[in-house]
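Format notes (please read before filing issues)

Several people have asked whether sequences and structure tokens are stored in separate files. They are not. Every record keeps both together, in the order shown below: the sequence lines, then the token lines. Line labels are part of the format and must not be stripped during preprocessing.
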Amino acid sequence: MTPHSGQQPNRSEPAGWRIYWDEQGSPADSFRVEGEIYARRLMAAIEIDASMDVLDYGCGFGFAAALIAPHVKTIRYYDNSPRMVEYCKARLAQLPNTMFCDLGSEDGFENCPPMDLILVNSVLQYVDSLGAALDLLGRLSKLMANGGLMVVSDVIPPSHSLAVEAIGVLFKHPSLFSDRIMNVARRYARARGSATLLRISRNDLEETARRNGMEVAFHEPNITHFPKRITAVCRKN
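Then the structure lines:
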């Protein structure tokens, strides 16, 4: 959920978002539902098998990783928020093919083995600049095995209306709007008061993929519960 950039590995997202994720309590049920939607749609969108080494970059509470892990060889996970890493470690503790991968340092990137699949879901909107976000994708591409995939999802396009999006989600997924979940949403809104959500165009994603030796295709619709956002499926040449 929370990312890092090449220059300052643990400090690329604005302070408002760092505080929001680091101060999370136990997860509201909406995070479980969102993780289930994402994992189900991901596994329907691309072929996943038991030979794959997977990296979940921005693992959050670990709901999606827990659902994907039984279908792959290994799943490594990382999040820039120490609180999220704690929750994810606890959730995955009984799954022997899961492990934390510390990508908060240059050594972590250098020591990470080649990945058949890298997941970057609901991450880029929390990076503090377009340059840092695209640089992150470039650095992650270096971890891909030849022919490997990187699925970048929940990217907010420049002309996207978040207000219209919220109304659509309310009608399609009313279970995401309990009283407790609305309290989380109010905290989220306060974080947005001090930190905006980054928007990225398809052209920027295409150019970044090309520059880093990847082919890219866009999956319609986006594979999270926000259908009008962008999912880019990148393949290493």
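For reference, the curators noted about this record: The beta strands are 53-57, 74-78, 98-100, 115-121, 144-155, 214-219, 230-236. The radius of gyration is 16 Å.
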